[in-house]
Amino acid sequence: MDDLTEASNHIHTLRAQIAATETQLGTLKLQLQQAEHPSLPPTTEPLSPPQTGIPAEWTNATLPALQENVQRDIAQRLRQERGLEDAPTIQAASQRRRWPLATHEYSRYGRQLIMPEIGLRGQLHLKNARVLIVGLGGLGCPAAAYLAGAGVGTLGLVDGDTVEESNLHRQLAHATARVGWNKAESAKAYLSSLNGNVRYDVYKCHLRPESAVEYFGDYDVVLDCTDHPTSRYLISDACVLAGKPLVSASALKTEGQLIVLNNPPAPPGDATGGPCYRCIFPKPPPAASVLSCGEGGILGPVVGVMGVLQALEAIKIITAAKPMATDDPVKPTMLMFSAYSNPQFRSVRMRARRAGCAICSSEATLTAQSLTSGSLDYVAFCGAQASVDIVAPEQRVSATTFSRLPMGDNGVLIDVRDETQFGICALRESVNVPWTGSAERWVQSARDVGVDFEDGRQMFTVCRFGNDSQLAARAITETLPSTINGASAKNVRVKHIEGGFEAWRKEVDPTWPDY
Amino acid sequence: MEKTANPITLQVEFTTDTKGQPSNVAFLTTWLCDHLMKDPRKEMFVLEGSVRPGVLVLINDADWELEGEEKYELQSGDEIVFVSTLHGG
Ligand SMILES: [Zn+2]
Fold it and tell me: Compositional bias (Pro residues) spans (chain A) (predicted)?
């Protein structure tokens, strides 16, 4: 008797499974047909409701609980807009009514879907989310890739720069074949092949104060993947004014920093909101202290780690089980990464909103009007880095002229780049004395490696771009008279090579490494 | 204490404070500037009598603004970190 019941149950289960699989097969065939012939109208499916092994009451039970989450089915709307999906067939409609995600989405996102941190609810939140990524460089490429992979409904990509060869060691969404492309466009090409279910909004321009708040209003979360204080202040201000949480990261050499700002996003004057960039850094750093990746260098995985962490923080914000309670005190932290330190990661507690913050406090002096009117000059606020121009005209020599001078016994060439750069490429017979910032110490270092400032020979200084070489030339003329007993300043002759090795490559030796 | 990037870790011992000055973070900053900083561009570290904008001071893994900033009195075993903020991406 028990055996009989068991066998009957087994048959029933098998029938149910077969029916369910056939339904799935039908859907897949339909999708295949639509993908292969997007212009064709969909095949008319039988009008009778599809046969499945699932009792009707179960089918109907899943829906109400999820109703709130399926209000905006962005991905589906997009497929229809692209012509990939026309008016839904009865079968497709019934599929959608029963399951809030499309069949292929369960397979694609299954590995994150089964985690309690995400679950169906979290996946639906991701699908409905709109994330804006400002900057598609070393941070933006990995951040965008992971957010696209995770199934974020819409990704906004903002970048006005073009892909350069020197980007490719770390900006992995770009490609050798796309050098010269706009970065947002190039990233879209990569991301579309990774996940075509995501909508990509491309903005081929730099973010501008006049339009930033309006752009941000269209998105749920903003990622600052830019590379300069100017844009960092602008993005933070616009996030406060638009009421959006901001995931901000930065990297240089072997280090990175990550902080989530304006989270929860509260209006200016509301102390329960998370701090903004100005709360943490009310004054911009001196322009001379700001090093770019081009100047200071950057290790690919270092900036990659930071970009991936930005994607992670964005996913956490989007899939949070409930909005941050306003009575919970905000506990902002900054994560610091240092690739060659032990430990590599350090999480530090940061301050809450600043009472006198210029943008997010009740005493705020900056408003949306300040931005849209263009009256707020972020470049002036952060200060432009003045190019060095300190040596007299007679102390300059062009790369071309220098290349025609006889060297050897007649002159001494001092290369003031650091040892690493000197090791990459150097002119024969040049002496490496890295510029360290201190005139006295630098002159002493030169002496230590055998440079004889008193022998009356013509000295030349050279560096990468022609800035430090001026400082070194000035160090020689200004330091030596006071340090050489009996020798007059006129005996010391020094010129710096204008434009450094960059000019050398352009004017004299095109094979000179362009690093 | 460290000053990144290119972390330098130093253990500094203050026995008694000199001339009755409080041994707070302001004192430490001046002391570092006068005794340990090799770069003559002091403005890269201290500007208008305080740590310059763009350098975060961390006291035992907390922003110094949570601890009283430069008036914070150093305790034995404290870890003070000076970090340059990064801007690259
Ligand atoms: Zn603020």
Answer: 39-49
